[in-house]
Amino acid sequence: MFLQEIIKTKNEELSKLTQKKRSLKSALKKSELTLIAEIKKASPSKGLISKNFDPEKQLQAYSQGGADAISILTDEKYFNGSTEILRQLRGKTSLPILRKEFIIHPLQIYESLFLGADIVLLIAAILTKQQIISFLDISNQLGLEALVEVHDHDDLEKIIDTKTEILGINNRNLDNFTVDITNTEKIINELEKMNIRNNFYIVSESGVKDKNDVDYLESLGVNGVLIGEALMKSNKPQEKIKELFPKKEHVRNG
Ligand SMILES: O=C(O)c1ccccc1NCC(=O)[C@H](O)[C@H](O)COP(=O)(O)O
């Protein structure tokens, strides 16, 4: 009898662990442009970005500025990030958290779950189609959403006919670090030619610096934008968000 009872208890505990978490997709479904605000201390293309790096203060400014989700770099070597930052900030916000990591093995997806992430990043450029399919399945089983990121046509070929729902278009070439925000228009045009644009919630990532960039991307019909450097370099990130997204609900300081 006891074993039957313990199995029932364990199943209940497991269902709590893998229940749906905070949802980025719910934000992207809204008509207003979604902002994913990124916490990034440094990067391979720019070196040190934030001298007085204070992740908790950055998170507070993003939340008060009206960000809809938070992206956190956990790579240490190239971005001066850490898993500890995600673990620390998990309990400080009710916003969905995207773990920005170079995922190449299922272990990292399980690790993301235990760190408290809600969304994982799957970069098509470093994965095979089969890995994307498999990692999407694992993420779904764990109650995690996935942002599947493409940069070019080859990446796009990999994600067609997968269960990708949230499609990130990275304007940065991750090999040579060049950035061109018109890359988003190029990829959207390809999606439209294939008649599959409406299969995805689209997030434009990288190189978004000012309101002109936001207005341009919004005119393309993207559902969200992911911004890191422009917010990390600002002395007043909450004000910067207000400048870029005047329509968002901004919580006043104090
Ligand atoms: O940011 C980099 O230099 C970089 C280099 C190589 C791989 C990834 C890289 N960045 C990750 C990102 O995609 C960006 O942090 C994110 O899209 C935000 O971009 P930005 O607003 O331009 O900081």
Topology:
Elements: H1 2-17, H2 24-28, E1 34-39, E2 42-43, E3 47-48, H3 55-65, E4 69-73, H4 83-90, E5 97-100, H5 106-115, E6 119-123, H6 129-141, E7 145-150, H7 153-159, E8 166-170, H8 182-193, E9 201-205, H9 211-219, E10 224-227, H10 229-232, H11 237-244
Parallel strand pairs: 1-4, 1-10, 4-5, 5-6, 6-7, 7-8, 8-9, 9-10
Antiparallel strand pairs: 2-3
The structure holds ligand LARABZUK.
The site of the ligand O=C(O)c1ccccc1NCC(=O)[C@H](O)[C@H](O)COP(=O)(O)O has 19 residues, from strand 10 and helix 10.
Domain Indole-3-glycerol phosphate synthase: 14-244
Protein name: Indole-3-glycerol phosphate synthase
Pathway: Amino-acid biosynthesis; L-tryptophan biosynthesis; L-tryptophan from chorismate: step 4/5
Describe this structure in words.
The chain has 254 residues and is α/β, with parallel strands linked by helices. Helices cover 41% and strands 17% of the residues. The strands form two sheets. Strands 1-4-5-6-7-8-9-10 form an eight-stranded parallel β-barrel, surrounded by six helices. It has a two-stranded antiparallel ribbon with strand order 2-3. Helix 3 runs parallel beside helix 11. The model has no long low-confidence stretch (mean pLDDT 96). The ligand O=C(O)c1ccccc1NCC(=O)[C@H](O)[C@H](O)COP(=O)(O)O binds next to strand 10 and helix 10.
